[in-house]
Design goal:
The chain contains ten helices and no strands. By secondary structure, the chain is mainly α. Helix 5 runs parallel beside helix 8. The longest helix is centred in the first third of the chain and has 24 residues.
């Protein structure tokens, strides 16, 4: 006898679920992960009761957002593993992951607040770490990247590129590409590619990225 299967959501229920998640990500990017679920529902134009049917609490919503994003990164890692050239495989993952990070300003908030020790999130986290470490080790073994490159450098790379993207998104939205390429060159992964996909910021643009007084 087979176990009871999980019924898929109706089309309207799935639309509501996605709208709640998209609205939450936007608000989290602006204000952090303390925005109440009631407010997220109102901003999404969805009844509060409907929101709670989809997500019983804010933690469930954060965990769903984490799962959605980590599924994307796992897919990117899987695609990169199919690249026969180890250096190109690592470069592909780094640039594709950086592009996702650059346009997802909520990612850092979601990663910091999801319950990463609970299954199935912990399984996804460990699977991605294993795949990323494998990409790094394969590139090092092939001499395609500096000899001390490690999986941890992938996450540091994404943090650095993400910080640039967050600060420059409204000023010079492609600047992150320039600094991603500069970092890849430092890793030894330039492989004849152009040194930068975007020009350096002007002095005026750079000044606009400086922190402003809060009062």
């Amino acid at each position: 006898m087979t176990g009871e299967s999980v019924r898929p959501l109706r089309a309207d229920a799935e639309r509501n679920r996605q709208l709640i998640m998209e609205t939450a990500a936007r608000l989290f990017a602006q204000r952090g992960a303390t925005v109440p679920l009631n407010e997220i529902a109102r901003e999404a134009g969805i009844g509060v009761a409907t929101a709670y049917r989809r997500f019983p609490d804010l933690q469930a919503l954060l965990d769903a957002l984490f799962t959605e994003r980590f599924t994307t990164f796992l897919d990117l890692a899987s695609a990169s593993e199919q690249e026969p050239d180890p250096g190109q495989a690592l470069r592909h993952y780094l640039l594709e992951a950086a592009q996702w990070r650059a346009r997802d300003r909520a990612l850092e908030v979601i990663l910091a607040n999801a319950d990463v020790e609970a299954e199935p999130i912990a399984v996804m986290r460990d699977d991605l770490a294993r795949r990323v470490e494998g990409l790094a080790e394969r590139a090092v073994a092939a001499g395609a990247v500096r000899a001390d490159f490690a999986g941890a450098d992938v996450y540091a790379f994404l943090h650095m590129v993400g910080a640039v993207a967050d600060r420059t998104q409204e000023i010079a939205p492609d600047s992150w590409r320039r600094y991603a390429e500069i970092l890849l060159t430092g890793f030894g992964l330039d492989q004849g590619h152009a040194a930068a996909h975007a020009p350096a910021m002007t002095d005026r643009q750079l000044r606009r990225t400086w922190p402003r007084p809060t009062n």
